[in-house]
Amino acid sequence: MFAKFSNLLRRFRRDQSGNVTIETVIWVPLLILILGATFSFYEAFRQKSLNTKAAFTISDALSRETDPIDDEYLDGMLSLLEFLTDSSGPYSMRVTMVRFSDDDGYLIDWTQARGGFDTLDDATLASMEENLPKLLNNESVIVVETQTEYTPTFEVESLQPQNFYNFVFTRPRFAPKLVWKESTPAA
């Protein structure tokens, strides 16, 4: 077996017909394209996963707060989103405290946005109701929305720059609801 293999290898090494060169010229560029496309698709799925995990991390951190949060806290959460995702584009985040009332349905207690998001209004909340959990009367939930831009490493025709949007909700853990601390104007 080994003798047959070494004879084939010796014969291949002595062959000077040029077939190997032609095949190399044909196949190497194709292999490089396939590897580049594979890397780009892998990187896109990895980036989407990082964005989802970052949204859940921010939501979990907010759900554990017992003190009122303010602008500095949310700016820090936006910096955390940037750190965790390390994506190429702008970062946006919206945090909304939603309460359910048997009489009025879902209500916005407060909403704050950073980046490209606008604050949440009642009309937009109404369009999100199917994504919100069923709540008891006066029960609250923290809704965190994040969005980051992704640009592929290599240009692949079916993979274009896109925004990764995440919608996450979490019930407050140690307090009945998350409170927004109103900024007091400087005297």
Summary keywords:
single chain, alpha+beta, 43% helix, 22% strand, transmembrane, Pilus assembly protein, membrane
Commentary on this structure:
The protein is elongated and about 85 Å long. α2 runs antiparallel to α3 (71-85). The termini are far apart. It has four helices and four strands. With 187 residues, it is α+β, with helices and mostly antiparallel strands. Strands 2-1-3-4 form a four-stranded antiparallel β-sheet, with helices on both faces. The mean pLDDT is 88. The chain crosses the membrane at residues 20-42. This is Pilus assembly protein.
How would a textbook summarize the main sheet? 4 strands, antiparallel
Radius of gyration: 27 Å
Supply the number of helical segments.
Answer: 4
Instruction: Tell me the helix content.
Output: 40-55%
String of helices and strands: HHHEEHEE
Q: Uncertain spans, ≥5 residues at pLDDT below 50?
A: none
Task: Tell the overall outline.
Answer: elongated
Short note summarizing the structure:
The protein is α+β, with helices and mostly antiparallel strands and 187 residues long. It is 43% helix and 22% strand. Strands 2-1-3-4 form a four-stranded antiparallel β-sheet, with helices on both faces.
Task: Spell out the blueprint of helices and strands.
Elements: H1 2-14, H2 19-63, H3 71-85, E1 91-101, E2 105-114, H4 122-128, E3 140-150, E4 162-170
Antiparallel strand pairs: 1-2, 1-3, 3-4
Helix pairs in contact: 2-3
